[in-house]
Amino acid sequence: MITFEGVTKTFADGTKGVDNLSLTINSGEFFVLIGPSGCGKTTTMKMINRLIDPTEGIIRIDDNHVQDMNIHKLRWNIGYVLQQIALFPNMTIAENISIVPEMMKWSKQDIRSRVDELLTMVGLEPKTFRDRMPTELSGGQQQRIGVARALAGNPNIILMDEPFSALDPISREQLQEDIRKLQKEIKKTIVFVTHDMDEALRLGERICMMREGAAVQIGTPEELLNNPKDEFVKQFIGSRAPKDTQALSEQTIKEFIQHNHDYLSSFIQTEDPSLQMTVNEDGALDELYYQTKKYPNEASVSVDSTAAEVYSLLQTYDLPALPVTDSDKLVGAISYKDLARMAAKGSVMN
Ligand SMILES: Nc1ncnc2c1ncn2[C@@H]1O[C@H](COP(=O)(O)OP(=O)(O)OP(=O)(O)O)[C@@H](O)[C@H]1O
Ligand SMILES: [Mg+2]
After folding, report:
1. Ligand 1, atom 7, residue with closest C-alpha
2. Where is the domain boundary, 215, 240, 265?
3. Which span out of 54-58, 76-80, 142-146, 278-282 was modeled with the highest average pLDDT?
4. How remote is the CA of residue 46 from the centroid of ligand 1, in Å?
5. CATH code, domain with 325
6. For residue 211, which ligand has an atom nearest its CA?
7. Other Cβ atoms closer than 10 A to 254
8. pLDDT per residue over 95-150, tens digit each?
9. pLDDT exceeds cutoff 90 at 204
10. Distance 41 CA to ligand 1 centre (A)
11. Which parts of the sequence belong to the ABC transporter domain (predicted)?
12. Nearest ligand, CA of residue 18?
């Protein structure tokens, strides 16, 4: 558990980076700090591992005042992923990941197996990547190394300062999914900074909305969406405000597509070449084949079908995907993978 009690940071020139901030981050929680540029996110983060010391107030980890803790031990126990990933250019990937374990004087063998374990964990094949130099990796791969390095010493707390902001949307979404899965598996406390509301809603168990060094509202994504505390929070949330919270299984394909324009394409074509659909001259589904076996036209759903109906039909016909129609016209197909996406995004997007 990390607690801030009335924490203020006034810089030498009088700027208040953080202003009387009080909050509690629970152990094992995915906690997101969000807010406009200059609102104090990085300053808040850096006070946890004492890269910056507060001018007023107290920060505790569990029951220990961070100011009283041994600074090396404190930092070893806190992984830190910087916004601009800075791998040491003249060290191999393995050496970059091993920095903290080396300092902690782990055995060579333990370090080697930890490096391979971490590379696997972040989705990079150890044999291929272990001995490469940082310049031989793509930006997204380097970012993954940054995450691996932060996890290397097996810290209980991981601070991530806009770790994915430099990435393209696809790598970014992939890494978001990976880090969320990872956090569920390894149950670390993660403090994650972003100024992207979609990212905050997707990842955060709780979100702290900051403005001018203070916390404006702290709550779950649903709480922020349903009860934004003021105009500022409302504006930050933008057009995502929901009507009523609706069960995912009740959500229709159409509603999901309307809220997730970027996913439309995945419904339009099946990735499974063994599913074949033909249309008649009206554009309606004519014949459906899966692995050369013919299926009845009832093995399809409409854009007004709910996720629950899609799931049930996928099971009934034991198909990997189903044709989707809109006003009797074939518009695409929906697969288990698409349902998983609806489940992953739907809960905050409905
Ligand atoms: N060393 C410093 N001296 C003076 N002012 C500083 C210093 N570091 C940060 N600040 C100021 O403190 C405020 C908070 O900065 P901080 O870096 O925490 O913002 P941030 O929320 O992380 O912003 P961004 O989204 O742009 O990264 C800003 O007004 C910034 O200019
Ligand atoms: Mg910052």
Report:
1. 11
2. 240
3. 54-58
4. 11
5. 3.10.580.10
6. 1
7. 14
8. 999 999 998 899 999 999 999 999 988 889 999 999 999 999 988 889 889 989 99
9. yes
10. 8
11. 2-237
12. 1
Ligand 1 atom with the smallest distance to the CA of 16 is 12
Type of residue found at 60: R
CA of 165 to the centre of ligand 1 (A): 17
Once rounded to an integer, what is the mean pLDDT over residues 197-208? 91
For ligand 1, atom 29: residue with the closest CA: 38
CA of 38 to the centre of ligand 1 (A): 5
Cα 315 to averaged position of ligand 2 atoms, centre (Å): 47
Taking the C-alpha atoms of residue 322 and residue 189, their distance in angstroms, rounded to an integer, is 40
Residue 10 CA: which ligand is closest? 1
Query: Over the Cα atoms of the chain, what is R_g?
Result: 24
Is there a single domain that holds both residue 328 and residue 300?
yes
Confidence band, pLDDT 50/70/90 cuts, at residue 192? very high
Ligand 1 contact via 43 beta carbon (within 6 Å): yes
State which of 240, 266, 297 marks the end of a domain. Answer: 240
Q: Which structural domain range is residue 275 located in? A: 248-349
